[in-house]
Amino acid sequence: MMYGTIAKMKILPGKEADLMNTTQTRPPGIVFEHVYKLDSGNNEYMMVVGFESKEAYKKNAESPEMHAMYLEYRKLLAADPEWHDGVIVESMP
Q1: DSSP state, 11?
Q2: DSSP secondary-structure letter at 81?
Q3: End-to-end CA distance of the chain
Q4: Using the 8-state DSSP alphabet, how is residue 79 labeled?
Q5: What's the sign of the alpha-carbon dihedral 44, 36, 22, 31?
Q6: DSSP label of 12
Q7: Edge-to-edge strands of the sheet including 3-10?
Q8: Cα(85)–Cα(57) distance, rounded to whole angstroms?
Q9: Closest by alpha carbon to 73, among 29, 23, 32?
Q10: Count of CB atoms situated within 10 Å of the CB of 79
Q11: Cα 15 from chain centroid (whole Å)
Q12: What is the H or E stretch that residue 16 is in?
């Protein structure tokens, strides 16, 4: 069963391109990643990521590579992201 996370982020003004450039690597087990720029106009974004399984998600989340990437993109955010993890019960192409 697929597993993933949804993150709400507020990006610092002028840092959108920098943030998108930090997430170009594709971790093992990832099925999809979507980033939405919210209509709020407040530099708010939602990121939705799906993995093949909870185990693949946890392996990625706990890896030193992901931690290093997080530290880099955290510098581009106004605050820590809000994370919401869970089982993906439906996904349509």
Answers
A1: B
A2: P
A3: 16
A4: S
A5: positive
A6: P
A7: 30-37, 44-51, 3-10, 82-87
A8: 10
A9: 23
A10: 10
A11: 16
A12: helix 16-22
Is the entire prediction scored with pTM above 0.85?
yes
Walk along the chain (93 residues) and give the pLDDT tens digit of each residue. Answer: 999 999 999 999 999 988 888 766 788 999 999 999 999 989 999 999 999 999 999 999 999 999 998 999 899 999 999 999 999 999 988
Q: Which residue has the tokens 């990121």?
A: 47
Q: Are 6 and 84 in contact (CB under 8 A)?
A: yes
Q: Which pair of structure tokens corresponds to residue 79?
A: 């605050």
The two three-digit tokens of residue 56, written as one number: 């693949």
Token readout for 44 is: 């708010």
In the structure encoding, which two tokens stand for residue 6, read together? Answer: 């949804």
* Residue 86: both structure tokens together: 């869970």
Residue with tokens 């997430």, as numbered in its chain = 23
